[in-house]
Amino acid sequence: MKINLKAFKIVSVLPVILLIMLVACKSPVNDCENIAGVWSITEVADERDCGGEIETSYYSATIIQTDCDITITIEGVSNDGEIDGDKITWTGSYLEDGGMTTVTINLTVSGNTVSGTASWTWSDGYESCSGTSTITGSKT
């Protein structure tokens, strides 16, 4: 019996090629915490630059997550952001007191708690002011 070495080489190499293709085409593993759900948030905002005081607000935030992309809804206003590992970032804008407030938020999640800061600017097109906030929260 004569063995076809050419066919034998192709058949023996084929599984190795398929394995390499599978590894090369594998999608990257997402390296981010699962933060989807409803969060109770406490925000302490320094509004003194805007003629206000240091104000404490309490509200609920709903987070929808697809991989490491998130959509955060607070009081009916939704903004998109992302989570990288345990770091949450997003920028959003909303109407407030006859003008527009733009906020950038940087948080760190640890289990079912979150903490971090926000910086924001308010403008009505003529006047503007800015401030910072400290944010803490827990998943409900």
Count of spatially separate domains:
1
Portion in beta strands:
over 45%
Residue stretches low in confidence (pLDDT < 50, at least 5 long) are 10-29
Global outline:
globular
| Computed Rg | 25 Å
Straight-line distance between termini: 73 Å
CATH second-level architecture = Beta Barrel
Structural class by helix and strand composition: alpha+beta
CATH superfamily: Quinohemoprotein amine dehydrogenase alpha subunit, domain 2
SSE order, one letter for each helix or strand: HEEEEEEEE
- Mean pLDDT across residues: 84
Helical content (DSSP H or I, runs of 4+): 10-25%
Task: Give a written overview of the molecule.
It is a single chain. An 8-stranded antiparallel β-barrel has the order 1-2-3-4-5-6-7-8. With 140 residues, the chain is α+β, with helices and mostly antiparallel strands. The protein contains 1 helix and 8 strands. The protein has one domain: Quinohemoprotein amine dehydrogenase alpha subunit, domain 2 (Lipocalin, Beta Barrel). The longest helix has 21 residues.
Furnish the topology, listing elements before pairings.
Elements: H1 5-25, E1 37-46, E2 54-66, E3 69-74, E4 77-84, E5 87-96, E6 99-110, E7 113-123, E8 128-139
Antiparallel strand pairs: 1-2, 1-8, 2-3, 3-4, 4-5, 5-6, 6-7, 7-8
